[in-house]
Amino acid sequence: MIDLYYWPTPNGLKLKLFLEESGLPYRTIDVDIGKGQQFEPAFLAIAPNNRIPAMIDHAPADGGPPVSLFESGAMLLYLAEKTGRLLPSDMRARTEVLQWLFWQMAGLGPMAGQNGHFNIYAPEKVPYAIERYEKETARLYGVLDRRLADREFIAGDYSIADIACYPWIVPHESHHQNLDDFPNLKRWFEAIGARPATKRAYEGVPARRAPLTDHERRVLFGQTSATRSH
Predict the structure, then answer these.
(1) What is the spatial distance between Cα 82 and Cα 159, in angstroms, rounded to a whole number?
(2) Any idea what DSSP says for residue 149?
(3) Contacts from 94-100 at CB under 8 Å and sequence distance 24+?
(4) Contact status, residue 33 vs residue 219, Cβ threshold 8 Å
(5) Residue 125: exposed, middle, or buried by beta-carbon count in 10 A (0-12, 13-18, 19+)?
(6) Where are the alpha helices (DSSP H) in 65-224?
(7) DSSP string, 28-45
(8) GST N-terminal domain spans which residues (predicted)?
(9) Which domains does the chain have, with CATH numbers?
(10) How many CB atoms lie within 10 A of CB 36?
(11) What gap in Å lies between CA 201 and CA 136, rounded to an integer?
(12) Which helix (H) or strand (E) holds 57?
């Protein structure tokens, strides 16, 4: 059994996508980040960076005690290796997948995240920041669109690279990106959205998030090095 500590953010949804695709038994344990539950000691014990998702595998492959993980990319890699699914065993094909997994972690996620922050959550509009991150998001969409010009999925077969990237494309409208400008990306996005596992993972997830309260804004964006429980 996998315990998935979760909130329906793009990074949280990556893990639900994998678990639904793989059929691994799991349960979700909600961590309401707007209420500050990510700062509770029990959660920090497995996720010292106070970010979701995190997980505990109660049946690791080595038969030893439970394994806890944080960081969504590390979790996808762990689960792919555990199950032998969605990550090729061939060295060259595996390298392709891992390159794009790390591309998402280092580029697409952070840049689209900043885009969303300054477009949706920032208390005041900062034109330079909005333009900066919208352009960088568009550049990354272009990279992915060109990659998909001659292949169905990012690294050939459907893999953890696709699972990592898809949730960061879902909020494209909020990030002021038009998928019609990226036809290969749009085709890929629609194909993944039609998968039964994707539909199950996104069941009940709102298309748009409600505006943040002042308290939620302080919890999410007011942290310093002195992390504390709320």
Answers:
(1) 14
(2) G
(3) 96/155, 96/156, 96/161, 97/154, 97/155, 97/159, 97/160, 97/161, 98/161, 100/147, 100/154, 100/155, 100/161, 100/164, 100/165
(4) yes
(5) exposed
(6) 72-83, 91-103, 109-116, 127-147, 160-169, 183-193, 196-202, 214-221
(7) EEE--TTTTGGGSHHHHT
(8) 1-87
(9) 2-86 (3.40.30.10), 91-202 (1.20.1050.10)
(10) 19
(11) 28
(12) strand 54-57
Eight-class DSSP state of 210: P
Taking the C-alpha atoms of residue 229 and residue 168, their distance in angstroms, rounded to an integer, is 28
Token readout for 180 is: 């019609």
Question: 14, 43, 34: which is closest to 105 by C-alpha?
Answer: 14
Question: Can you give the pLDDT of all 230 residues of the chain as single tens digits?
Answer: 999 999 999 999 999 999 999 999 999 999 999 888 999 999 999 999 999 999 999 999 999 999 999 999 999 999 999 999 999 999 999 999 999 999 999 999 999 999 999 999 898 999 999 999 999 999 999 999 999 999 999 999 999 999 999 999 999 999 999 999 999 999 999 999 999 999 999 999 987 776 777 777 777 787 777 655 44
Residue 87 to residue 76: CA distance in whole angstroms:
10
User: Which amino acid, one-letter code, is at 92?
Assistant: R
Which residue shows structure tokens 């942290």? 223
